[in-house]
Structure formats: structure tokens, C-alpha cells
């Protein structure tokens, strides 16, 4: 952790019309750190993540990723920066009519010049690398199957392999299990953790399931109405402390705490 | 007191006025009524009468007497001419398909790089669609000579309008997520488009292009009348020399070729695009053109289940292939290779065939200069203004009258063809079959047939366009009626409504906006078709255009501009109404 911060946010503010999506967010995330973003929907989790790879531009404040300013990057510079940051979406966002392998290969597009259509348009070395990544997420047998014929959990595995194909230094995940059943959710979260640890990646993952969050992250950041309302090491927190994030001003009724799951076991 | 001001109570009170419908609805209703009025006036104005038709049937007898025995061309001649016609159609359609991709990219709201690009893309689409293909072929023939190339260029440019419009619609329907994912991975704009957007558009694009090839095959027959080589040209020679014993066999060959092509293209669509696509736009309707192709919505189809089973069985060997960087011959790869190499071979052969026809680029620039100086500036002597106005009115009347007749026929056949309202499966099958046969008939053959029956003039064009219109409109109606939400129908069945009551109260009102949209689309195409049919003797401005092309090209350009003004006006009106009822 002597290395400079992987991500540095300084007074980041973003508005959409009258609503303040992010309100003066200042945050440092170290390399290899596993951060969970918690908060109600609309609290700014997705907006925050999308600022980290330049999919959104801040109104004020600065975003620095891997030592480079994101907000001012343009064109080739921005694409280079994005290629060093993997992104996993809630809805997987695979290209349905294409094979799983080709979807993984699109993660390497930034290494290539010009558009690619079809597996044969990619160099063989990249095809091998993509196949190895599919094996790592447990889907080597599905390499040549159309992505839209896979189950939700399988599609998210392909999407993870696509993000790793970028050989990223940071992994961002926006509600990666919100569209999945509980069993697949646990498997996917464990997989992300395992793959990130193996590569020493910093991970920022937004979640809305508190019980998944506590066992998984090394740090928990809570957002409410675009403001950071909690920032603490995960081991120091219990559920009632976390549930306070979801409390509105003047609202004392807190949902009963959910059972905490042991994800370390699931990962093994 | 508060209860009396709720709308329900006001509506329930006898003698109380119903609340007024919205302004958009009123405007749309007024416009549609006005259009209906114009259509009725047109129908009475084109001089179509029962006597004429019955007299025509007598003529048909004497015509047939002059047409038998048929003089068939030799088999090699038939094959050569058919191959040449198909070659021109393939080359023209392929050219249009390639040109349409950048135009659609510009025109689609979600891919256009700038606002100006979007306007440019839409303008190119409307402009290429507006200029009638037969007129374009005439002008090209002046520059590069008669033969194949003038036809290829005319089809290649005119078809851009339809293909790019429908492709842009399909691009706008594509989910944004995959594109965002590629952007997040650092992909460039072009990598985003070809990596995420295009693979999702491709099935619709193939269906659109095949459908356009269908249309172009029919159009190529008309191009024969302005000098483009192929079956249509032979037909026009035989017709002009009143040699009906040779003309009729050509007409039969063309009809058989058109029906065969329709069947083959439907089979190709089913083979390539087995899984149905989300079906909202016209493009997506084309994807499921075959009755068998109509299945469940997007997501999970039968093909997917089969794919999963196959993958499990072959999984291990595929895994090994992947590690070696090899790409095994899966069913999908076989299909896309067959498509790619099949298209390439066909196109190569078509280019070779079309190149046998003498069109020369040797004097291209010189001829272009001559043609331009002959065309420019457009001028129309005042003496011809009145005749032009009359001819333009006649063309508009033909289009309106034909659309009205087609609407009546399509309502009947469309209702009988729709699964949810057809009285019985047998009726449905019969009317679906009838629609396929009608779609197979080229409008030109119909027009010639009716010219023989009713004599030269607008009546023949009206009947030809009306029947041709039923083929297209009837199918679109049937699809739209089948696509209505089933909930209200079930609800009415549950309260004991009769079939007719369910149709009028639940099915029809839901389908109305789509039906209006399709009818306006047909009106739009009919204006252009009415112009083109005039060239072969269908009355209206077309006849003036074709004589101007031979005698005074300054007039040709002036008349063409008049036609374009009308086409744009009708197109503008149609899109206004569509927006009002959307």
C-alpha cells in the first residue's frame, strides 16, 4: 500500500438538472483494495463508478485514475485509460448474437487498430488468451456458443472474462449480481474476488445486498443522496452500522438485519 | 360536491357532453377524413367503370385469340435472359446495401456523430427514395448507354432510400448496453459500431436487403421498358411490336421467376435467421415473413435450446479447439460462411454477367457533360403548364384511388389472415396463400394486363397498383392485427362478447394506428409507382416524362422536379399524421 492511490476523487460533484447525483465526494482507493459501494438506488453509486472510466464527466472536482486525470482525457488518451479499467455491468451487456469467445475478445479491442467482426478477425494469440480466460471463469466448453443462449450467471462470467481480457489494473462492477438468483450471485461475487486477488487488482463494486457486502469487501463506502456517509474497513462494521446508510433523515425504522453469509467459504 | 366534478360522473350524466378528444387526435382525424375525401374524388375521377371492366373481359377473349399459340423462346435464351435479369438485380441491390450502411449510420439517432450528420443521412434517404428508378435509369442510359449498367446504377441508388431508412430504424432499436461495454473497454467509435451495434442489426439488415431484392426483381421488368437489358426489355420489344404471341411467354417467365425468387428468399431468411427478432418495426416484420417463422418474442426460441444441447455434447472438443486458438465449424460458423461466400460468388458471377452488356465508360465524362447540358437548366414552356398540371393531378388521383381500393381489399384479406381473428384456419391459410401469390405478381405485368383489358389510361394503372398494394398491405395488416395485446380480447371473451364484438371493441382499435401508418406508407410508394407506370401507358405524368426524355431533356428535369415536390409533400403529410397518432 506504499504505491500511490489507484483512484483519487477530489470534491467530485455531478448534477442532473436539479438533482445532485454526487455531492462533494472525496475518496482515495489504494491498489489491491476491495471496496464495496452501498446505498439506496439513486444514491449515486452508478454515477460514481461511471466517472471512474470517463463514461460520465464531472461538473466540478477531479477524478484521477492510476495517476492520470480522467475528466480531461480525450480520444486516444481516454481509450488507453479505459483499457486499464475493467467494467462489469448489471445487465452483462454482451453482444447477444455473437459467441462467448468473441465477446471476451472485444475486451482486447483497444490493443487493436480498426474494427473487428468475427472470431477470425482477431489474432490467434488473442483467441488463445480469451479461451484461457473463459476457462478461468469455468466456461471453456461454451466458447463457441452464442452469448444470448447462456444463462444469466454464465453471461456474467463471460462479461468478467471480457473485462479481464483488457488486462486491467482496476476492476469496477456496477451491481454485478442484481439480475441474478441468490446462488449465482454468491458464485459470481466469489469469482470476482478470487480473480481480483490473484491479479492484485483494486476492485470497486456497488451492491445493494448488505449481507453480500460485509463478508466480501475490505472496505465499505456508503452513499446517501450523493454524499459519502460511511467509509470504514469492513471488519470494523456490523450490520446495524451499515443499515444506517439506508436510513432517511428522521426515519427510525430500520429493516431487520439480514443474515450474513460466509463468502470465504463459497470462494474456496 | 367533490364527487360531481370527477370525470366519471360527468360522463355518466345523460345529456352531458363528452370531453373533447385531444387536439392531435382531432387534427389527425380531420387530415385522414380529408385524405379519404381526396381518395373518393380520385376514384370517381380516374374513369374506372364496371362497363369498362366487363367490356375488357370481351377484349381479353380476342386478345388471347391473338396471343395463341405462344411462341416460346428457346431454353438457353430463357436461362440467359433470366440470369442477366437476376445479375442486374443482384448488382444493384448489393450496391444499394453497401451504400446504405453509412447512410443508415448517419441517419440513426443513436449512432449519428453530429446533428448535421443526422439531417444529411435522412436527406440522402428521402432524396434517393423520391427519384423514381425508371427515370433514373433513363438518365443513366443517356450517359453510359443502354445495357445493364444503367439499370444497376438506378436500382443501386434508388434502393438506398428504403434500405437505409429501415436499417436506421433497426439500429435505433438496438440495446445500448453492449456498445457502452465496448466503450468502457476503450474501443473506438468504429470498433463500437462494428463490434456491438452491427452484429445486432445484421439479421434485420439481411431481411431488408432480401426484401428489397424481391422488389427490385419486379422493378427490373419496368427498367426493361427504358432500355435496360434482360427479360423486361424482351417483353417491351414484343409489346411495342404488338407481338403478343411472344410477349405472353415472357410475362409468364417473369411471373414464375418472381414467385420462385420470393420463395427462395423466404427460405434463405428462415435458414439464416431462424430465431425470431423483437418485432416492432417494418424491418422486423420482414424477418418473420414466413408463417412458420412467426414464433415467440425475442429471448428464448427453439433454436437456442437445440444449440445448448449441441454445445453440451461437443463442449469438450470445442474447449480444446479454443485453447489451440482454432475456430471450429459450428452450425453458426457454417451459416455465416455460407452467407459470406454464397453472396460473394453470386455477386462475382452477377458482375461478370452484367459486364457482358455493352456499357462503356470510354466516353463517360464527355457523355456526362452532354447529358448535363441537355438536362440543365430545367425549363417548361408555359404552353405545357396546363397539360402538366392535368397530368400531375392524374398521377395523384391514380395513387389515391389505388390506395383506397387496396385498403378495402387489405382489410378483408388482412382480417382473414390474422390468427387471432380469422374465422377458421382454412380461411386463414387460403387468404395467406392468396397474399403470397399477389405479392409475386409484378405490378408491371398487372398494368400491362389491365392496359389490354381497359385500354391505355389511368384505369389500368389504378387496378394494377390496387392489386399489387393488397399483396403488401394485406400482409402488413395481418401482422399488425396479430400483434395487438391479447389481454383486452380475452377480457371481452370472458364477459361473453361475440367474435365480431371482440374484434370491433378490442382488436381493431388497438391495431388502428399501425393500420393507418401502413396505409400512408402505401400511398407514399404509390405516388412513385403511378409515375413509373405512366411510362408504359398507365396515364399521368409518367407518359410526359418518357416523351420528354426522348425529345427535350430540359423538360424532363422540370417535370421530374414537379414529381419530387409532390412526393415530398405526400411524404411530409404522412409523417405528420404518423406523429399525430403515435
UniProtKB/TrEMBL annotation, chain A:
Tree of life domain: Bacteria
Family annotation (CDD domains): ABC_PhnC_transporter
Domain ABC transporter as annotated: residue spans: 7-250
Keywords, in A-Z order: ATP-binding, Cell membrane, Membrane, Nucleotide-binding, Translocase, Transport
UniProt cross-references to InterPro entries, sorted A to Z: AAA+_ATPase, ABC_transporter-like_ATP-bd, ABC_transporter-like_CS, ABC_transpr_PhnC, MetN_ABC_transporter-like, P-loop_NTPase
One Pfam entry name: ABC_tran
A GO molecular-function descriptor: ATP binding
UniProt xrefs under NCBIfam families: ABC_phnC
Protein name: Phosphonate ABC transporter ATP-binding protein
Species in which this protein is naturally found: Leucobacter albus
UniProtKB/TrEMBL annotation, chain B:
CDD domains: TM_PBP2
InterPro entries: MetI-like, MetI-like_sf, PhnE/PtxC
Domain ABC transmembrane type-1: 82-265, 392-574
Compartment(s) where it occurs, according to its Swiss-Prot or TrEMBL record: Cell membrane
Domain of life: Bacteria
Annotated PROSITE patterns: ABC_TM1
Alphabetized UniProt keyword annotations: Cell membrane, Membrane, Transmembrane, Transmembrane helix, Transport
NCBIfam families for the chain: PhnE (TIGR01097)
Official protein name in the record: Phosphonate ABC transporter, permease protein PhnE
Source species of the chain: Leucobacter albus
Classification lineage: Bacteria, Bacillati, Actinomycetota, Actinomycetes, Micrococcales
Amino acid at each position: 500500500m506504499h504505491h500511490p492511490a489507484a483512484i483519487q476523487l477530489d470534491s467530485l460533484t455531478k448534477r442532473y438538472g436539479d438533482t445532485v447525483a454526487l455531492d462533494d465526494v472525496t475518496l482515495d482507493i489504494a491498489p489491491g483494495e476491495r471496496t464495496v459501494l452501498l446505498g439506496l438506488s439513486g444514491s449515486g453509486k452508478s454515477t460514481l463508478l461511471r466517472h471512474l472510466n470517463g463514461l460520465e464527466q464531472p461538473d466540478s472536482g477531479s477524478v484521477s485514475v492510476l495517476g492520470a486525470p480522467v475528466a480531461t482525457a480525450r480520444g486516444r488518451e481516454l481509450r488507453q485509460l479505459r483499457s486499464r479499467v475493467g467494467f462489469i455491468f448489471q445487465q452483462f451487456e454482451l453482444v447477444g448474437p455473437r459467441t462467448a469467445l468473441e465477446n471476451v475478445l472485444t475486451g482486447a479491442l483497444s490493443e487493436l487498430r480498426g474494427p473487428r467482426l468475427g472470431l477470425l478477425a482477431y489474432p490467434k494469440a488473442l483467441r488463445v488468451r480469451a479461451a484461457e480466460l473463459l476457462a478461468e471463469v469455468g466456461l471453456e466448453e461454451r466458447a463457441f456458443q452464442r452469448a444470448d443462449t447462456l444463462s444469466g450467471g454464465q453471461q456474467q462470467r463471460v462479461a468478467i472474462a471480457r473485462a479481464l481480457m483488457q488486462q486491467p489494473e482496476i476492476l469496477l462492477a456496477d451491481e454485478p449480481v442484481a439480475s441474478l438468483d441468490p446462488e449465482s450471485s454468491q458464485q459470481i461475487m466469489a469469482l470476482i474476488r478470487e480473480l481480483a486477488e490473484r491479479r492484485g487488482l483494486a476492485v470497486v463494486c456497488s451492491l445493494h445486498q448488505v449481507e453480500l457486502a460485509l463478508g466480501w469487501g475490505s472496505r465499505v463506502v456508503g452513499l446517501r443522496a450523493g454524499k459519502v456517509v460511511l467509509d470504514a474497513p469492513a471488519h470494523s462494521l456490523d450490520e446495524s452500522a451499515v443499515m444506517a446508510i439506508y436510513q432517511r433523515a428522521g426515519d427510525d425504522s430500520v429493516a431487520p438485519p439480514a443474515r450474513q453469509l460466509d463468502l470465504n467459504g463459497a470462494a474456496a | 360536491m367533490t364527487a360531481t366534478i370527477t370525470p366519471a360522473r360527468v360522463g355518466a350524466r345523460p345529456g352531458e357532453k363528452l370531453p373533447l378528444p385531444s387536439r392531435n387526435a382531432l387534427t389527425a382525424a380531420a387530415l385522414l377524413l380529408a385524405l379519404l375525401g381526396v381518395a373518393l374524388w380520385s376514384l370517381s375521377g380516374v374513369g374506372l367503370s364496371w362497363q369498362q371492366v366487363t367490356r375488357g373481359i370481351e377484349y381479353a377473349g380476342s386478345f388471347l385469340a391473338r396471343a395463341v399459340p405462344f411462341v416460346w423462346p428457346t431454353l438457353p435464351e430463357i436461362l440467359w435472359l433470366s440470369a442477366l435479369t437476376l445479375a442486374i438485380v443482384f448488382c444493384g441491390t448489393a450496391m444499394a446495401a453497401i451504400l446504405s450502411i453509412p447512410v443508415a449510420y448517419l441517419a440513426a439517432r443513436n449512432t449519428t456523430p453530429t446533428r448535421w450528420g443526422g439531417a444529411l443521412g435522412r436527406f440522402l434517404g428521402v432524396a434517393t427514395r423520391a427519384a423514381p428508378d425508371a427515370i433514373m435509369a433513363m438518365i443513366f442510359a443517356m450517359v453510359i448507354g443502354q445495357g445493364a449498367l444503367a439499370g444497376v446504377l438506378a436500382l443501386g441508388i434508388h434502393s438506398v432510400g428504403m434500405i437505409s431508412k429501415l436499417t436506421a430504424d433497426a439500429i435505433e432499436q438496438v440495446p445500448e448496453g453492449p456498445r457502452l461495454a465496448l466503450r468502457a473497454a476503450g474501443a473506438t467509435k468504429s470498433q463500437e459500431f462494428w463490434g456491438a451495434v452491427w452484429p445486432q442489426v445484421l439479421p434485420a439488415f439481411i431481411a431488408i436487403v432480401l426484401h428489397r431484392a424481391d422488389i427490385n426483381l419486379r422493378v427490373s421488368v419496368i427498367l426493361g421498358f427504358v432500355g435496360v437489358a434482360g427479360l423486361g426489355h424482351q417483353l417491351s420489344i414484343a409489346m411495342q411490336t404488338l407481338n403478343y404471341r411472344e410477349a405472353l411467354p415472357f410475362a409468364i417467365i417473369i411471373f414464375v421467376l418472381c414467385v420462385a425468387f420470393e420463395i427462395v428468399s423466404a427460405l434463405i431468411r428462415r435458414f439464416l435467421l431462424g430465431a425470431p427478432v423483437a418485432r416492432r418495426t417494418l424491418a422486423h416484420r420482414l424477418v418473420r415473413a414466413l408463417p412458420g417463422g412467426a414464433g415467440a418474442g425475442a429471448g428464448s426460441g427453439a433454436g437456442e435450446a437445440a444449440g445448448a444441447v449441441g454445445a453440451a455434447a461437443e463442449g469438450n472438443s470445442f474447449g480444446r479447439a479454443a485453447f489451440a486458438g482454432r475456430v471450429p465449424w459450428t452450425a453458426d460458423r457454417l451459416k455465416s460462411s455460407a452467407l459470406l461466400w454464397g453472396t460473394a460468388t453470386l455477386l462475382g458471377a452477377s458482375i461478370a454477367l452484367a459486364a457482358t452488356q455493352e456499357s462503356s465508360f470510354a466516353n463517360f465524362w464527355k457523355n456526362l457533360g452532354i447529358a448535363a447540358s441537355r438536362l440543365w437548366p430545367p425549363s417548361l414552356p408555359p404552353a405545357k403548364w396546363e397539360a402538366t398540371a392535368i397530368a400531375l393531378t392524374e398521377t395523384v388521383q391514380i395513387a389515391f384511388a389505388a390506395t383506397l381500393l387496396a385498403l378495402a381489399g387489405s382489410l378483408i384479406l388482412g382480417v382473414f389472415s390474422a390468427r387471432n381473428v380469422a374465422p377458421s384456419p382454412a380461411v386463414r391459410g387460403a387468404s395467406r396463400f392468396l397474399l403470397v401469390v399477389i405479392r409475386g405478381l409484378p405490378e408491371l405485368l398487372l398494368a400491362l394486363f389491365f392496359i389490354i383489358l381497359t385500354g391505355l389510361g389511368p384505369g389500368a394503372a389504378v387496378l394494377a397498383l390496387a392489386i399489387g398494394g393488397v399483396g403488401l398491405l394485406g400482409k402488413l395488416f395481418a401482422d399488425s392485427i396479430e400483434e395487438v395485446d391479447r389481454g383486452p380480447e380475452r377480457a371481452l371473451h370472458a364477459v361473453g362478447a361475440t367474435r365480431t364484438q371482440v374484434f370491433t371493441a378490442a382488436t381493431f382499435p388497438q391495431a388502428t394506428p399501425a393500420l393507418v401508418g401502413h396505409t400512408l406508407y402505401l400511398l407514399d410508394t404509390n405516388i412513385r409507382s403511378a409515375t413509373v407506370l405512366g411510362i408504359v401507358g398507365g396515364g399521368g405524368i409518367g407518359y410526359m416524362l418518357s416523351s420528354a426524355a426522348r425529345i427535350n431533356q430540359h423538360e424532363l428535369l422540370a417535370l421530374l422536379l414537379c414529381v419530387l415536390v409532390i412526393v415530398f409533400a405526400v411524404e411530409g403529410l404522412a409523417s405528420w399524421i404518423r406523429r399525430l397518432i403515435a
